[in-house]
Amino acid sequence: METKLVEIAMRIRELREILEITPEQAAQATNTSVEEYLSCENGQKDFSFTFLYQCAKLFGVDMVELVTGENPRLSFYSIVRKGEGLPIKRRAGFSYQHLAYLFKNKTCEPFLVTAPYSESE
User: Fold this and answer.
1) CA distance 117 to 121
2) Which of 8, 19, 70, 116 is the most core-located residue (most Cβ within 10 A)?
3) pLDDT value at 1 more than 60
């Protein structure tokens, strides 16, 4: 089991318990079944970007806090040089880089997503 996956799953479980949200409520908020939600929360199943985003929204935290365990600190502007975004590995073949991971109170989550090219599609 990947260490990063387990760490993120622990943060999700701890936040849910602290906020006294039931697994049923969390599953409903993340559009998953209770069994699927609990397997993600226990680190048994990898979760999608959408799942992380919905958990962060439900818990009232920044998605970066779930992924890194750190709270974004910048409030005026953030400069991210080419290739220096926070890498997030989710789907095979795709590359995700969070471009404002240090910026707090964002109105959106800016990502650079690189998808594999397939001439047949």
Assistant:
1) 8
2) 8
3) no
